[in-house]
Every structure is written in C-alpha cells, then in structure tokens.
TrEMBL record, chain A:
Protein name, entry field: UDP-N-acetylglucosamine transferase subunit ALG13
Listed GO biological process terms: dolichol-linked oligosaccharide biosynthetic process
One GO molecular-function entry: N-acetylglucosaminyldiphosphodolichol N-acetylglucosaminyltransferase activity
Keywords: Endoplasmic reticulum, Glycosyltransferase, Transferase
Subcellular location: Endoplasmic reticulum
Source organism per UniProt: Drosophila madeirensis
Enzyme Commission number(s) of this protein: 2.4.1.141
UniProtKB/TrEMBL annotation, chain B:
Protein name: UDP-N-acetylglucosamine transferase subunit ALG14
Classification of source organism: Eukaryota, Metazoa, Ecdysozoa, Arthropoda, Hexapoda
Keywords of this entry: Endoplasmic reticulum, Membrane, Transferase, Transmembrane, Transmembrane helix
An example Gene Ontology molecular-function term: N-acetylglucosaminyldiphosphodolichol N-acetylglucosaminyltransferase activity
Gene3D superfamilies linked: Glycogen Phosphorylase B
Main localisation: endoplasmic reticulum
Biological process per Gene Ontology, one example term: dolichol-linked oligosaccharide biosynthetic process
C-alpha cells in the first residue's frame, strides 16, 4: 500500500518524541520506501523543524514537509493516505469515522493517561495500529495497513440503549397517565 | 385532568465541552428519531444545560438538532475552570451546586441524562436529593453514559455517580466485566 500523503498530528498538546521520531533518518527512509511524497506535520506546542532541515528532507528523501501549529484539520485527514497521531480520543475517532488508515503513537512518558486505553482497545479490535515512538520506523516498514478492519456503525447498540431507556421511563409515563 | 398531569416534566441533558457534547448530541438525536415518534415525544421538552463559558456546545447543538437545540439551552456557572486556585474553587463549586439545586427544584426533570463532564455531577446529586425529598416525582430517573474513551477505568464523574444512577452505561467489555455485580450498570456494546 502506497502512502503518498502522510498526516501527523499531536493534538492540542506537545509530543516532542513523536516529532523527533517522524523526522528521524530511519522513519524517513521507511516513508520513502512506501512512496511518501508529502508529510504534513501538525506539531502543536512542540517545536517545528527548521527551514534548512525540511529542505534537506526534501532533497534526500523526496518528501515535501509542511508544518503548522493548529488549524481545523478535517481536510488534512480526508486527504491523507495514512494518519499518524497521538492517542487522543478525537484523533482516533477522526481516523475511524473517515475510514482512514491510522497508526497511533502512544506517549510512553505519560503515566496513567486514560486516553491511551481507547487507542489500545481500538488496536485490539484491529481498527487501527498503535506503537511507541521508538518503534515507528520498524512498524512503518512492516505493518500491513490493508488488513485493518473498517469501523462498523454502532447504530444497533444505540438502539438497544434507547430501548432500555424507554423501558426505564415507561414506569414514569404509565404512572402519570393512569392518574 | 389532574394537577399532576398539567405539570410538564422536562428531560435535562447535561452537556460538557468538545467531545462530551458531541457524544451527547448523538445520544439525544437517537432519542428523538422520527420512527420512534410515539415514545420520543415523551422525552419532550428537552432542556440542555451547558457551562456559561462553553462556546462550542452552542454550535454543536445547532449543527445536530437545529434551532430547537439552541432554543432550549440553559446557561449555568461552571464548577471549576482549568488552573483556578483551590480557594476560589471552593466558592465557585458551592455557587454551581446551589444553581443546580435551584434549577432541578424549579423544573422537576423526569430524566437527567448526562455523559461524564464535571458539570453533570451536581445535577445528578440535586435530582437524587429532590427525589428523596419528594420534590421530584418518584419515577424520575438519572441516567449516566460513561465517556467513550473510558475502557478500563471509570472517570471521576463516573465513580461519583455509579452509586446513584438508575442506569449507568459503559461502552467497553472490560468495564462491564469489572462492575458486573452492579445491577444498574449496563453494557450494550459501544454506542459510537
């Protein structure tokens, strides 16, 4: 699977280890071998790469680097062939509801970050992949992105909930109607 | 017609910020779906509750439910702002608590429906208290839907409300297993 456009997002915080990993030699090589041409980096409060560095990346790997702090990113998500993101619930759901291929990089320096639970659960169910920053290069080389499952709608479960709620309230409704 | 019937008992839907509100809008939309017209009417009127400095809930409500959403939006003081000092928090929390007690007393909701933002805790406690004291009808209900990103552990709001919610919904099997001894805990699979 070719990953022409790769979108990297760290969300509203900072995630230096992800920015470092994604612009490391081994990861850039892996991206190059997957025919990546464009790398868009939403770096949040982490520092962006210098102009000189992005020029070097373009020369050495043929990958155009675009960087920004924040902006509404739905267009970036829709345009991407692969989304590499932090373990935020919003990022995970953006990937799944847009039918995108995602690799969530778990920040192993954050202890007790409950949002990682969601990313791990979704990975267990094979909706996306997770890895640590240090594993990024190896994973990009070896992961089979085509074997991920599409995210099914949960409408049926929602209906079950609504039915349970109706049943709970019916007591109240029959109570007031019988008066 | 008895006086009991003439009183309108609304549904209170407590919104939080960003992700919480988006999830709550989906739940409310499912409740009000057309094909269920017979039952969905019974949840009306719906009053949405949002913190007064929460600007995103307005837009999300409008996008999902149209004008009927924003028209019924109640603005309430927030318990605590991010970075607020401990001492001033005590006063704002008390203020927010009094507000919730007043609103629940005034409107007598038949159902308080919420999904985890800190704002919802005082409303559930107020509804519980007023039901015990007879101000709310005995068949009024408190329903809590845990945050979607809670897979293995409950949120702080969840832990505070598990003892008193009539239905407490979780999205993931690990939580369902951990609290399987709680009769009010329900698991329907993920809702989103």
């Amino acid at each position: 699977m070719h990953l022409k456009t790769v979108y990297v997002t760290v969300g509203t915080t900072k995630f230096d280890a992800l920015i470092e990993a994604i612009t490391s030699e081994s990861v850039l090589k892996a991206l190059q071998s997957r025919e990546c041409r464009q790398l868009i980096l939403q770096h949040g409060n982490s520092l962006p790469k210098s102009v000189e560095e992005s020029r070097l990346i373009s020369q050495q790997y043929g990958i155009q680097l675009e960087q920004y702090t924040f902006r509404p990113n739905i267009e970036d998500i829709k345009a991407a062939d692969l989304i590499i993101g932090h373990a935020g619930a919003g990022t995970c759901m953006d990937i799944l509801t847009n039918g995108k291929v995602g690799l969530i990089v778990v920040n192993d320096e954050l202890m007790d970050n409950h949002q990682q639970e969601l990313a791990r659960q979704l990975a267990t169910e094979r909706y996306l992949y997770t890895c640590k920053p240090s594993q990024l290069a190896v994973q990009l080389e070896s992961l089979d992105f085509e074997s991920l499952r599409p995210y099914e709608s949960a409408d049926e479960n929602m209906l079950k909930f609504v039915k349970a709620l109706d049943e709970l309230m019916v007591q109240r409704w029959t109570h007031s109607a019988s008066k | 017609m008895s006086t009991e019937e003439a009183v309108v008992y609304p549904t209170y839907v407590i919104l939080g910020s960003g992700g919480h509100t988006a999830e709550m809008c989906k739940i409310t939309k499912a409740l009000l779906q057309q094909q269920r017209a017979k039952d969905s009417d019974k949840y009306q009127p719906i009053r949405f509750v949002a913190a007064n400095n929460d600007e995103t809930s307005d837009r999300q409500l409008l996008a999902v439910l149209g004008d009927s959403g924003t028209d019924s939006l109640l603005r309430v003081p927030r318990s605590r702002n991010v970075g607020q000092s401990w001492l001033s928090s005590v006063f704002t929390i008390i203020y927010a608590l009094l507000w919730s007690c007043w609103l629940i007393w005034r409107d007598r909701p038949q159902l308080v429906l919420c999904n985890g933002p800190g704002t919802c805790v005082p409303y559930c406690y107020a509804a519980y208290m007023w039901r015990l004291l007879g101000r709310l009808p005995a068949h009024s209900r408190i329903v809590f839907v845990e945050s979607f990103c809670r897979v293995e552990t409950l949120s702080l709001s969840g832990r505070l409300l598990l003892p008193l919610a009539d239905i407490f919904v979780v999205h993931w099997p690990a939580l369902a297993k951990r609290y399987e001894d709680r009769p009010n805990l329900r698991y329907f699979g993920r809702l989103f």
